[in-house]
Design brief:
- This protein is of the alpha/beta class and 291 residues long.
- Helix content is 45%, strand content 15%.
- The strands form two sheets. The chain has an eight-stranded mixed sheet, sandwiched between helices.
- The longest helix has 20 residues, at 36-55.
- The radius of gyration is 19 Å and the shape is globular.
Length: 291
């Protein structure tokens, strides 16, 4: 199947990143969000990020101009119905994702492929609520999308080979690498990454080390580019907690129990960079550890 038009649900950090790379790869993009302010902010951020790529010689000014012209925005979900491939990149809550797909169904073309950028939720379960489980799969980009090279492709139990091959072709056209993952909680990357972050929070919670010492230890002792608590702030502590809950509920193993301190930060609304406070306080010129 030849994909020409791509619909993206959600103009947040992941959605605007996906729109960015899709438009640069030559796809026509329709970006949807319930908030017009979010759509306007996404366009502004994409223009700024592409300008940075131009200044570094990654793309030309002509490529930037063409890509931005290929992006359209809409607050109306139904307008995505005429696209060939839809990538849902809304908040990591299953009920929200299910509602989006249910609202889309009456407006889809017969051949439209549905995908979710979920980092942990069952693809099979999401697909079962649609009229096309064979044309449904996980399409998990890494953050930040323009920089990270990996895309996890996750088949549900009913996903057919044509759907997988079509999505794999899109990934190839983006110049990224696809990893095929089975439909188990958190797939590959987050099945490994999130328990490490959760253990770092436990290390902080139990007083083994401070925020600064934990992050410095992993950067200098394990050669990680970011410390686990810094990375958690970048991802969003609410997202980290949601994924740990999926792992804990889905695998019924106490080793995946979310750290109470992670829960407390989320309850306080300290979600990381997006709220200016998490394990670090970002309201000044330099991030300052909050513990």
């Amino acid at each position: 199947m030849d994909i020409k038009k791509i619909g993206i649900v959600g103009a947040g950090q992941m959605g605007n990143g996906i729109a960015h790379v899709m438009s640069l790869a030559g796809y026509d993009v329709m970006l949807n969000d319930v908030s017009q302010d979010a759509l306007d902010a996404a366009l502004e951020l994409m223009a700024k990020n592409m300008e940075r790529q131009v200044s570094r010689g990654k793309i030309t000014a002509e490529e930037q101009d063409g890509a931005l012209k290929r992006i359209k925005t809409t607050p109306h979900l139904t307008e995505l119905g005429q696209t060939d491939l839809i990538i849902e990149a809304a908040t990591e809550r299953e009920s929200v994702k299910q509602a989006i797909f249910e609202d889309l169904l009456p407006h889809l073309l017969p051949h439209t492929i549905l995908t979710s950028n979920t980092s942990s939720i069952s693809i099979t379960r999401l697909a079962s609520r649609t009229d096309r489980p064979e044309k449904f799969m996980g399409f998990h980009f890494m953050n930040p999308v323009p920089v990270m090279q990996l895309v996890e492709l996750i088949r549900g139990i009913a996903t057919d080979e044509e759907t997988f091959s079509t999505c794999k072709t899109v990934v190839d056209r983006l110049g990224k690498t696809a990893a095929s993952a089975e439909d188990f909680p958190a797939f590959i990357v987050n099945r490994i990454l999130m328990p490490m972050i959760n253990e770092a929070v436990y290390t902080l919670y139990e007083g083994v080390g401070s925020v600064q010492s934990i992050d410095s230890s992993m950067k200098l002792g394990a050669n990680h580019p970011m410390g686990p608590l810094e990375l958690a702030d970048f991802i969003g502590l609410d997202t980290c907690l949601a994924i740990m809950n999926v792992l804990h509920d889905g695998l019924a193993d106490t080793k995946y129990r979310p750290c109470p301190l992670l829960t407390k930060y989320v309850e306080a609304g300290w979600l990381g960079r997006k709220t200016d406070r998490g394990f670090y306080d970002y309201r000044g010129d330099i991030p300052i550890p909050t513990r």
